[in-house]
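Slack export, channel: ligand-projects

TW: morning all. Re-posting the request from yesterday since it got buried. We need the structure predicted with the small molecule present, not the apo form. The ligand is fe (ii) ion; the SMILES is in the block with the sequence. No rush, but it would help planning for next week.
GE: picking it up
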Amino acid sequence: MFQKGREDPGLNHSKNKKQRQKGDKEPLNIFPGNWDVMTPSLLRSYELWFPQSWDPVALDWSQLDGGNFDRKEAISQAYWLAKLALFEKSGIGAFGLAALQAGRHNMEDPTKKFLAAVTFDECRHDEVCRRACSRLCPGFPYTFRPSNDFEERAVRNINALYENGRRYWSAFEEAWEKYPLELIFSSFFFAEIGAQLIFGQVADGSGLKVYRDSFKNITRDESRHLTGTLAMLERLAASMDDKQKMMITRQMKHGFIYLSPLLFKPVGDFWDLPRDFYESDSKFEELASRSGLGVPSLEQRSKAWLNAIEKHRKRLESMGIGVPRIEEIGLEGVDVSVKKGDAIITSPL
Ligand SMILES: [Fe+2]
Ligand SMILES: [Fe+2]
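GE: finished. pasting the full token output, ligand included:
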């Protein structure tokens, strides 16, 4: 097991003199901080944020005016974006909290700034969801009043997802007390693999320009997140033993389960949803896809997930990190059991 607060030669190398003298009992503090750069590849990922920055306000949102679609199409598009927003919102929280923890633990400077930049990106992605929903179906999902069964099922599904999101978030906050910081930081990359692929598919498959532009930009953000989180992983994994690396494999399986409603279909070990959730979910997705929002089919998502993980297998295995077996998508690997009721500790998109 990791030892909490143990010094890492890279990301967490530079406890200041006062902290070292007084030991770990003194409450953690972001001051005096440091400007150390121990992982140049992480710094480069952070630096790319500046030239790759984009403005969601400038996109042509009028394409999504409710009058351009029939009511069911508008609701279905808003439904998928509200589903996506669950993962963007958990991204804002998780990366924001991680940025703060990186400061408290006096990690190297690019770690703090990279995580803060990712937090901002997640706000931008959530903003895309908010803007789209407010045009398509004002108030959806928070203050929207459904007027028929179709609309009721849309709101019910989203509420059920968000209720599960609450459970995820409580466990994520508790994780900082239970698990070593290194484990949480080294597991961020997995969701980014999934994010890069789904948003690329949505950008390619969307008939509406506002979606193509949004998701092309979001995909570029996600590629940067993936590069940076892999740099963090590589640095941290260099000083981990096999048991610690096995915990990362387990986190990858958790990541698959958490992201399953978006990237596959909800996996029951964690998700507690209405019995007919998936039946109506797939109808909303199909309608959203037919009306201009390029949501990939279950089969396309499943194949893409498998390929995306396979693409990184070699690099992960060269770090001594095994890929978990995920039978749902046909991924071969290490058997990891996740029991019903286990807390899912992973990072979001
Ligand atoms: Fe995101
Ligand atoms: Fe991301």
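GE: first-pass observations. The longest helix spans residues 71-104. The pocket of fe (ii) ion (ligand 1) is lined by residues 88, 91, 122, 125, 195, 349 (CB under 6 Å).
TW: perfect, thank you
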